C-alpha cells in the first residue's frame, strides 16, 4: 500500500540563484488554473488515506490566502493524513493568517526554508527573507505552542566560513527546532550559480574545506542533542521526517503537479514540467502527461542500496530479503566485502551502514552498487 503523497506548487516570488526545481515567478501566472488542474489530478489518486502528505515547491506559501484555502480544502476533503502533514514555507511569506489556516486545515509540520543566518549570503542566494523574518516567525510559533518544524539550511555557500556555521548553530540552540535539514550546496545546470562556477566566479570551498564544514555541522548538532539519522538530516527523538524516509527506504509514493516525480506500481513517473503544459494535459486528457519508466529488478536492488545507505541505520538485511526474496549477499556480497575491508562500510549482521569515513565519500560508495 502506498503511504505517502507529494504535491508540487511551482510558484515563487523570486527565483533563487541555486535552485533547479520546477518553478516560475508567480507574477502573471495562471495560479488559479494550476490549482484547479492539481485538484483534478488529486481525483485520479485511488488511495485516500496516507501516513504522510507533503506540499512543496517552489514555494507553497507564495499562494494567496484564497488560493491556499482552495488548495487545503481540496486536500482535506479528498485525503486523510494519519501521521505527518508537512507544508514548505518561506519565513517572510508565512503570515499569522496563513499559519492559522494551515494549522486549522490539519498541517502539523512546517519545513521552513532558512538556508543561512547570514544576511549577505541570503542576498547572494536570491532569498527574499532576512534573519529578522526568521526570528519573528519562530517567536510566533513558540508563542502559539507549535513545535514541529524543521529549519532547512545549506552549507558550503559562497563566502561562507566556519564562523557562519557557528552562528547558525547558535540560532538552532536558541530556537530549539525539532528537526534540521542541512544540505551541501550542489551546483546544478541551468542555474545562476552554475554559470558563475563555469566562469570561475563562484567562491565556495574545495572538497577538503567542504568536509571540514560538514564535520562542524555534524559535531555541532550532536552537541545540541540532535541525532543524525540521514546524511543531511538531524532530529530530536521522534521527530524524523517520516515523509522523506519514504524516499530513502525506497517505498512507493504518489507525486502530483507540474514536474513532480512518483513511484507507483514499480514505475518511476515524472509529470510534464511547464506549468501551462501541465494545466493543458489535465484539462484535455484528464491526467498529467508524464514520462514513465518500468524499474527493473536490478535497478530496485541498486536503489535499495544507494538510498538506504543515506540513512544512519543503513540497509536492513532482513528487509532486503523480504522485499526481493533473495539475501543481500547473493547480489552484493563481493561489493560489501570490499567496502568493509576499505573501512567505508560496516556489516553488523543485521544492517549494512556507512562508516564515518564512508559518509565523507558517500557518492563513491553508492557508485559501487550501480551495475546496470
Automatic annotation (TrEMBL):
Q: Where is the Radical SAM core domain?
A: 1-227
Q: Where does the UniProt annotation locate this protein?
A: Cytoplasm
Question: What SMART domains has UniProt attached to this entry?
Answer: Elp3
Q: Which GO terms describe its molecular function?
A: 4 iron, 4 sulfur cluster binding; coproporphyrinogen oxidase activity; metal ion binding
Kindly provide the name given to this protein in its UniProt entry.
Answer: Heme chaperone HemW
GO CC terms in record: cytoplasm
Q: What does this protein do?
A: Probably acts as a heme chaperone, transferring heme to an unknown acceptor. Binds one molecule of heme per monomer, possibly covalently. Binds 1 [4Fe-4S] cluster. The cluster is coordinated with 3 cysteines and an exchangeable S-adenosyl-L-methionine.
Query: What is an annotated GO biological process for this record, any one?
Result: porphyrin-containing compound biosynthetic process
Q: Which InterPro entries match?
A: Coproporphyrinogen-III_oxidase (IPR034505), Elp3/MiaA/NifB-like_rSAM (IPR006638), HemN_C (IPR010723), HemW-like (IPR004559), rSAM (IPR007197), rSAM_horseshoe (IPR023404), rSAM_sf (IPR058240)
Q: Which NCBIfam families match?
A: hemN_rel
